[in-house]
Design brief:
With 145 residues, the protein is an alpha+beta fold. It has 2 domains: 80 residues, no CATH class; 44 residues. It is built from 1 helix and 8 strands; from the N terminus they run E-E-H-E-E-E-E-E-E. Strands 2-1-3 form a 3-stranded antiparallel sheet, with helices on one face. It has a 3-stranded antiparallel sheet with strand order 7-6-8, with no helix packed on it. Strands 4-5 form a two-stranded antiparallel sheet. The protein is elongated, with a radius of gyration of 26 Å. Bound molecules: zinc ion. The site of zinc ion has 7 residues, from loops.
């Protein structure tokens, strides 16, 4: 069974059940933003607000077998179903164009820029021949827009 996720808020109750983590995450973020905007616009907090994105572990629900009952052609037999989901880690969100991506690379704290490896000297300095400041560069996590 593929994983499913549920998004819930105190205000709206069940917002949705999702097969796709990215969709669930988007719904969660939208709900968060909507609540934050509500607070900024109205200046009041709901102390009970509680927005949740959770992985579903088990689901137990009514299931229409589509088999007609003996006494009626329009009524069908119903049954129960239970789904169980493995507790594998949540997958990382899919990266889309425009998303911020974090990786490891060279960074010049003097110029406050990410420096491509071609512009770093053997002395780990921001290469002046490439328009750099000549300052020390660091190998660290950088963001690419
Ligand atoms: Zn620099």
């Amino acid at each position: 069974m593929d994983k499913q996720w549920v998004v819930f808020s105190h205000e709206e109750g069940l917002i949705g059940i999702f097969d796709n983590y990215d969709e669930a995450l988007k719904e969660y973020k939208d709900s968060k933003d909507a609540y934050e905007n509500y607070v900024y616009e109205n200046g009041e907090h709901d102390p009970n607000e509680d927005i949740i994105l959770a992985a579903i572990n088990k689901r137990f629900y009514s299931y229409d077998t589509k088999n007609p009952t003996e006494d009626s052609a329009t009524t069908t037999y119903w049954d129960f179903k239970e789904d169980c989901f493995s507790l594998n880690p949540i997958p990382l969100p899919t990266i889309k164009p425009g998303d911020k991506v974090y990786s490891v690379g060279w960074y010049c704290s003097i110029c406050n820029v990410n420096v491509s490896p071609q512009h770093v000297t053997y002395q780990e300095e921001h290469d002046v021949r490439a328009g750099g400041c000549g300052g020390h560069v660091e190998w660290m996590e950088v963001s690419h827009d």
